[in-house]
Design brief:
17 strands; 25% strand; single chain; 7 helices; alpha/beta; 7-stranded mixed beta sheet
């Protein structure tokens, strides 16, 4: 019987492992096939506290991992296939076997929705980004595209005008899901240009983004547009399928936790990081909720002993 089983290896998962390991709970952490979570695709990070010089996301996550190992957290580089709860304990099924645990911390994150084109993967982290807040400052004086038609796309475009010379909105429809007031604000911004209704067909460049091929979704006409960055703002997919029978999810699939806590509706199941955060989605906030989940789990285990 394990005290704590942690699923996910981004800032939230590793922080939960550090805190529970320091509390001598000997956590087991399932890292997945790619340890480090979404941050590992960020080639330059300059807004994580305590790193005054630019550092890559992969380097930061390696430091997280080393710290968890220092306190003897057990790290398994495999994906969890299923979680069940018998009313008392959890059963976590993985390729190496089934693990029983008194509590589970879910830190599986949320993946930014990607453009359905082959070249997007090639340039992700090399000019293509799913986070304007994270990467906008790298595009000072540059020309960027924002793909999307919702409130997030409008907000990202406005934010990016602080740095970029021009921001071009690319949306495949001639109407927007965003609130009319947000669209009006974007329309009034002289630094924001529009390509509507267009979709990105291809991204090109040598080692980094240098432009994109746009296709008019009604006429089929194409045009090449030069740009230095492409920000994809078409939503995130929280990786919450493992707990859909054990936790309440909001309409977008994010895990709902009790206010002021990381606890879900199933006793002993806690959620942290982007899988329960539809708003901020930052590495530092994920790490903070990982700490919260570890402390919540520790208190839960203490309550079992005293009961």
């Amino acid at each position: 019987m394990e005290n704590v089983i942690i699923i996910g290896s981004g800032p939230a998962g590793y922080t939960a492992a550090i805190y529970t390991a320091r509390a001598l709970l000997r956590p087991v952490l399932f890292e997945g096939r790619v340890p480090g979570g979404q941050l590992v695709v960020s080639h330059e990070v300059e807004n994580y506290p305590a790193f005054p010089a630019t550092i890559s996301g992969a380097e930061i996550m390696q430091l997280f991992r080393q710290q968890a190992e220092r306190f003897e957290a057990r790290l398994l580089t495999e994906e969890v296939e299923r979680i069940t709860h018998d009313g008392t304990h959890f059963q976590v099924q993985a390729p190496s076997g089934t693990y029983a645990g008194a509590c589970v911390i879910l830190a599986t994150g949320a993946e930014a929705r990607r453009l359905p084109i082959p070249t997007e993967q090639k340039y992700y982290g090399r000019g293509v980004s799913g986070c304007a807040t994270c990467d906008g400052a790298f595009f000072r004086g540059k020309n960027v595209l924002v793909v999307g038609g919702g409130n997030t796309a409008m907000e990202d475009a406005a934010f990016l005008t602080r740095f970029a010379s021009t921001v071009t909105m690319v949306h495949r429809r001639d109407y927007f899901r965003a609130a009319p007031i947000e669209v009006a604000k974007a329309r009034a911004n002289p630094k924001i240009k529009w390509r509507v209704p267009y979709a990105i067909e291809e991204i090109y460049g040598e080692t980094v983004v240098q432009g994109a091929l746009l296709k008019h979704t009604e006429t089929g006409a194409t045009e090449r547009i030069a740009c230095d960055g492409i920000f994809v703002a078409i939503g995130h997919e929280p990786q919450s399928a493992l707990v859909k029978e054990l936790a309440d999810l909001d309409q977008n699939g994010f895990v709902i936790v009790r206010p002021g806590s990381t606890a879900t509706r199933t006793p002993g199941l806690f959620a942290c990081g982007d899988v329960m955060d539809p708003l901020y989605k930052q590495a530092v906030t994920a790490a903070g909720t990982g700490c919260m989940a570890a402390l919540d789990a520790q208190r839960y285990l203490e309550s079992l002993v005293s009961a």
